[in-house]
Amino acid sequence: QTVVTQEPSFSVSPGGTVTLTCGLSSGSVSTNYYPSWYQQPPGQAPRTLIYTTNTRSSGVPDRFSGSILGNKAALTITGAQADDESDYYCVLYMGSGLWVFGGGTKLTVL
Amino acid sequence: QVQLQESGPGLVKPSETLSLTCTVSGGSISNYYWIWIRQPPGKGLEWIGYLYYSGSSGSTNYNPSLKTRVTISMDTSKNQFSLQLVSVTAADTAVYYCARGRPGVPIDYWGQGTLVTVSS
Lengths: 110, 120
What we know:
The complex is a heterodimer of chains A (110) and B (120). With 110 residues, chain A is mainly beta. Chain A has no helices and eleven strands. Helix content of chain B is 0%, strand content 57%. In chain B, strands 2, 4, 5, 6, 9, 10 and 11 form a seven-stranded mixed beta sheet that branches. A four-stranded antiparallel beta sheet of chain B has the order 1-3-8-7, with no helix packed on it.
């Protein structure tokens, strides 16, 4: 069974840039997996940031961007702010109607 | 603005059936994916499954790990869709989210989530 992998935790300084990644335990992530990204602040429901690799959801600031870097999907946050401190999840399409979440990355801004 | 709201019992006994409803307001229910996702306390998100409603019929797809226990259905007259999970155990304790997707966009709207605890 293929597992979607994410860094368990990451930290970034205020104003800094951070790139979170989303990979596969076996194989490479491509646009064919339609990677999307979600932000979940502490105690809140998730919200959609990015879909189909690099399309920002409505209202999402352009500080958030998505891409494919090497063999992984990536979410880059530029000019990190205190309220970016959240859990970030990716989800990949595995075919046959199956979507699988990564384990999530806890981002600390300090 | 589309809004989704989960409702249902917050406590279910082991071996019984978990039943939740999601009420959709502010938009059509046709030609969208209607999704259930869950999150055990302190853990990550898990895709449960979806129902795609085309306006005349629906098709479903479930997480293989839950497929034998889960059913997602729709009541078009009430703009609601539902989740049933049978034979629950403590491992099914989680916050359950309903969500909407559309072709090319796995999830565009989320509900606020509802905590369901499985305990005797």
